[in-house]
């Protein structure tokens, strides 16, 4: 039995497991079963979890995404599995206000699902708090896409059932206040198509698959696409579907991208350091499975 305490009526649970310990398979299965029920899991530790332990724990849940670190560039966190979600450069200094990396990172303040712009979707993300700003600033908010789907009017459910959305990394970066990418940058991140409604694999419940990365809906005009997406985003992020996580240093929060959306909230990122590090677990290799 994995011990757990509800933090929210539908979507968040504190899971009383020290992720730095060697864990038996039954504990991992217990965590998955809690997450299938309540898709945000909070693991608390008295100090920041080391990058190695963070990556090792993440690997227990499936293939972990690895970043290609460009040759000659010094990463602040030298693990290809760790996405640096801080406001800090390679020397640990706060990025200037107009730095392109900062401008793109601020797109995290739009409701999104991690990596929905990839054909192979992300399952879990695990975000680890190393340094947080003072006064409980910059909580992360999560919204439950299965509860939101359940609450939709039946007529809307029928309308959106067949729809396929195009998810584009640069769409959210630009509406989030970042610069237009070059053609070369765009070609490195082609959009991906996913159904708006899917069956969540762990629970077999229907869920919305939404994100601010969605640029359009296949077969609809731009205006109709926008209207459908804006309405669904507003509906799905109503307060009853939302849990706001106030961070403590040492927290690792794990969320299921196939059952939630999330967003960062603003803080004074020119004055305070916020050092958050993420790993991302992916669905199995779809292309490889198709070949078998
Ligand atoms: C992420 C993310 C939000 C935050 O790490 O994927 O969206 O509050 N983070 O840092
Ligand atoms: Mn994110």
- How helix-rich are the residues, as a percent range? 25-40%
DSSP E strands, number: 15
At the first level of CATH, the class is Alpha Beta
Secondary-structure content class: alpha+beta
Globular, elongated, flat, extended or rod-shaped: what is the shape? Answer: globular
In what range is the share of β-strand residues?
15-25%
Report strand order across the widest sheet. Answer: 1-2-3-13-5-15-4
**Number of domain units:** 1
The CATH level-2 architecture is identified as: 4-Layer Sandwich
Output the CATH homologous superfamily: Clavaminate synthase-like
- Taking pLDDT < 50 over at least 5 consecutive residues as the criterion, the unreliable ranges are 286-292
Description:
The protein is of the alpha+beta class. The protein has one domain: Double-stranded beta-helix. The protein is 26% helix and 23% strand. The protein has helices at residues 25-37, 51-59, 100-105, 145-151, 154-160, 169-175, 183-188, 222-236, 286-291; strands at 4-6, 12-15, 40-43, 83-84, 122-131, 140-144, 164-167, 192-195, 197-199, 206-208, 214-217, 242-245, 252-256, 260-264, 275-282. It has a seven-stranded mixed β-sheet with strand order 1-2-3-13-5-15-4, covered by helices on one side. A hairpin with a 6-residue loop joins strand 9 (197-199) and strand 10. The longest helix has 15 residues, at 222-236. The model is unreliable at 286-292 (pLDDT under 50). The structure holds N-oxalylglycine and manganese (II) ion. N-oxalylglycine binds at residues 85, 108, 114, 125, 127, 140, 262, 264, 276, 278. Residues 108, 112, 114, 262 line the site of manganese (II) ion.
């Amino acid at each position: 039995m994995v011990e757990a305490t509800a933090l929210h009526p539908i979507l968040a649970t504190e899971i009383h497991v020290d992720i730095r310990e060697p864990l038996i398979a039954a504990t991992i299965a217990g965590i998955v079963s809690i997450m299938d029920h309540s898709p945000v899991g909070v693991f608390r530790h008295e100090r920041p979890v080391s990058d190695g332990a963070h990556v090792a724990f993440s690997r227990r849940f499936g293939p972990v995404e690895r970043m290609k670190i460009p040759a000659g560039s010094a990463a602040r966190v030298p693990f290809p599995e760790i996405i640096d979600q801080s406001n800090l450069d390679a020397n640990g200094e706060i990025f200037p206000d107009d730095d392109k990396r900062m401008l793109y990172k601020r797109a995290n303040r739009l409701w999104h699902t991690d990596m929905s712009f990839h054909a192979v979707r992300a399952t879990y993300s695990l975000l680890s708090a190393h340094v947080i700003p003072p006064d409980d600033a910059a909580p992360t908010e999560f919204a439950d896409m299965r509860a939101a789907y359940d609450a939709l009017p039946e007529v809307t459910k029928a309308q959106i059932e067949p729809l396929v959305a195009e998810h584009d990394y640069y769409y959210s970066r630009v509406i989030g206040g970042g610069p237009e990418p070059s053609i070369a940058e765009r070609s490195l991140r082609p959009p991906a198509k996913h159904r708006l409604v899917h069956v969540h694999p762990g629970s077999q419940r229907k869920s919305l698959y939404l994100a601010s990365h969605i640029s359009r809906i296949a077969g609809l005009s731009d205006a109709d696409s926008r209207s459908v997406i804006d309405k669904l985003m507003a509906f799905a992020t109503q307060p009853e579907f939302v849990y706001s996580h106030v961070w403590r240093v040492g927290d690792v929060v794990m969320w299921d991208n196939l059952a939630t959306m999330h967003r960062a909230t603003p803080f004074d990122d020119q004055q305070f350091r916020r050092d958050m590090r993420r790993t991302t677990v992916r669905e199995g290799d779809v292309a490889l499975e198709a070949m078998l």
